[in-house]
Write a structure and sequence with these properties.
This protein has 2 helices and 18 strands. It is mainly beta and 312 residues long. It folds into 2 domains: 153 residues, Jelly Rolls (Sandwich), CATH 2.60.120; 141 residues, Galactose-binding domain-like (Jelly Rolls, Sandwich). Strands 1, 12, 13, 14, 15, 16, 17 and 18 form an 8-stranded mixed beta sheet that branches. A hairpin with a 4-residue loop joins strand 7 and strand 8. The protein is globular, with a radius of gyration of 20 Å.
Amino acid sequence: MFRALLLVLATVVFAPTAEAKVFKPSSVTASSTLPPAEGVEYSADKVNDAKASTPWIEGDGGSGLGQWIRLDLDGEQDVRELKIWNGNWYSFDFWTRSNRVKDIEVELSDGSKHSFTLKDEKKPETIKLPGGTKTSSVKIKIKSIYKGSTWNDSCFSEILLSDGKGLDFATPASTATSGFLEEDSDGNYGVENAFDTLKDTMWCENDASGDGTGSWIEYTFGSPTAISKLKLHNGNAYGITQCTASNRAKAIRLDFSDGSSKTIGNVSGSCPLLKQYAFDSRTVTSVKMTFTTVTKGSQHNDLCISEARFSK
């Protein structure tokens, strides 16, 4: 991570969404998989491990045309949206060197098929399925590709299925933060990473003179929203080694739009597990998280938070 210039205030605006349902696949299979290399696996279930840096890579020996991946569900579900992290998100270098998928055919369990064209951008992309058809599986077939500069393998890094009403937590309509690190070869460190459901993408503060104590994130909801829980992936939640390398929160003060506040202490021990912290329910339009105490990392003097999600 490279140190960015100090940003006094950064604001990002999102479309407001309501709490909804995300569907966890019971199994994920694929037509082919690239064999493991140097202990790294590329199996189909990598698209559902909440890590963008661990892709499924097809292994048919060509560019991947006609190859497919299928996510099976527990019974028929009202799947309306697919959120896709296209290509190999291990790094920007790997993303450009590997094939990205361009055109896909999505087949549901009733045999209906729907065609979509994906953008050639290293950003998660949401595609909408027609409503009214429940399905017990979602099969995605590769029809065409954007050619990589080095490797002739096509990849998906993560795929999320939902009912199209948002996610199963209170998604902010807009955010503000004390600042974040400048994008580097590993990715960006913006506040949107704190609620993208992935373990290995994160918000990291950019206080050049300190360890992140006093830095903050504020979520503003699109309407009065009932919340009573904070789910936290502290630090870099990819793994314990990565988590302890960077600074992570030890205590957090929550300031709510109704004028109340709540301090949550002793959270550094959650690294890198997803932990839930409960507080008295309140209906608010915003909540500000200030990181009042920090545990120092072994390598980087930057406070990072992989996930901070509120729900009722």
